[in-house]
Amino acid sequence: MAAIFRPIPWAFRGSLCLPLSARRFSKTVDENRSLAGKVAVITGSTRGIGFAIARRLAQDGAHVVISSRKQENVDEAVTILKEEGLSVTGTMCHVGKAEDRQHLVTTALKHSGGIDFLVCVAGVNPLVGSTLGASEQIWDKILDVNVKSPALLLSKVLPYMENRRGGSVVLVSSGVAYVPVPKLGVYNTSKTALLGLCKSLAMELAPKGIRVNCLVPGIIKTDFSLREKTMPNMLPDMNKIFGVQRLGEPEECAGLVSFLCSSDASYITGENIMVAGFSSKL
Ligand SMILES: NC(=O)c1ccc[n+]([C@@H]2O[C@H](COP(=O)([O-])OP(=O)(O)OC[C@H]3O[C@@H](n4cnc5c(N)ncnc54)[C@H](OP(=O)(O)O)[C@@H]3O)[C@@H](O)[C@H]2O)c1
Known about the structure:
The chain is an alpha/beta fold. The chain has a single domain, classed as Rossmann fold, CATH 3.40.50. The protein contains 8 helices and 7 strands. α1 links the parallel β1 and β2. α1 packs across α8 and α3 runs parallel beside α4. NADP nicotinamide-adenine-dinucleotide phosphate binds next to α1 and α6. Keywords: Oxidoreductase, Peroxisome. This is Dehydrogenase/reductase SDR family member 4. Belongs to the short-chain dehydrogenases/reductases (SDR) family. One of its GO terms (biological process) is negative regulation of apoptotic process. One of its GO terms (molecular function) is carbonyl reductase (NADPH) activity.
């Protein structure tokens, strides 16, 4: 219990006292903006929710390292954001591969000298079907990418966040963690596991001044949800129950992540926060 009453590490009392060791930042942002001087690594950030988060963190002043499995997607995303005057670099990283995770960290360090934020967006769902009918390979793939990879990547990033004397990590779960969607049992389970991972990591890393929180999106309009027919089909039912009027936009997830990375969220850790139009949980 005593750990709860430890003094807040200095790096979390305000952004003014944080070291400015990153070399290149967005030219178009005001240096006083909340994330100025910070470096963010984002997985699964070439489209959808991850891309919206990358754009927002860069607009708010961070240098952002974009990544996903396909180099051409990385190149395209980097080009778009650079044309907007934002400070971004990118590299290919399949989060399920150890060598790719290491390469992502190395790339981020080469460009910017340190890492302040890690946002783990990449997630997969290769199965629509019964939970007990899922093969061991399906279980391994979903758990490797969705649950294990954020922890394994963070273990590589951790020394550099410790060097900065603090940091912020954001995991990305899903509303299906609370209300399972039929035929997505393995995916549902992986997203529920992330809620627990967030709590455990937050507790372990609090003494180091590193905060860990979790974005929990509802149904957001992206390739992922539109490909997954079950999700949009749920909307009429959800409308009846919760009064939700529409699908969410990726940009509506991005502001929360920027806030969680900023010093405005300095006393917030271990939280699983829904962005879903409405949430039935207390
Ligand atoms: N959309 C929703 O309604 C919704 C709701 C709740 C939660 N989520 C969660 O939000 C996250 C993003 O979903 P989204 O809707 O934005 O998906 P999306 O539009 O399909 O984008 C997925 C992104 O992740 C990359 N990616 C996929 N597998 C990867 C891997 N193994 N390693 C690294 N990058 C990978 C993709 O690029 P490449 O193809 O180049 O790899 C792409 O940049 C996922 O974790 C998903 O579970 C989504």
